[in-house]
Amino acid sequence: MKLKQLESALQEVEVFRCPKVSLEQYPTRPHIAACMLHTIESRYGDIEGRLVADVGCGCGVLTIGATLLGAALCIGFDVDADALDVCRENCAEFEANAVDFVQCDVAHVADRECLWNKRFDTVVMNPPFGTKRNKGLDMVFLKQGLLMATNAVYSLHKSSTRHHIMKKAAEWKVDVEIVAELRFDLPASYKFHKKPSVDIEVDFMRFSFK
Fold this sequence. Notes:
The protein is an alpha/beta fold.
């Protein structure tokens, strides 16, 4: 599937009905999701025929995109039952059958539920950026993803945290590659947002094992 076709398809994915600020719920834009997934497959071959986990799947744009690119199975993990309801509805609309979902606290999915340790070829995620009340949550998600994957983890992180992430990757003895530098269009989703949208500089990163 070509990049433009994938992006066009993902524009049909429904987003959060009532996003929850405590969970930093923001939709992953179709353009960003399509660029991520198309690159993962075209450059690294890490989706087609692979067992994929979408950690913090939200409404399922990465899950659906992975199935459109031929994932053998994609399992979405999220703590929020409302988000998973939307995700299931989206998958039904796309007639995506190679999917499943697990409601759980993503912050502990691998270290407390060893069922998921090293069960996936590829892990994809757009984690909370870990700001304000959720400080550090992005790194918690990343660590869980690394526990779950056997091959690679692909994730988005604020470019301003790059040095910290590279340092942690070295401590964890994993290789890290900045695949692309992107601008994440964060739409106004909550009452306290003053602007229609804000562009945030983000790094699209690939983590793999030495």
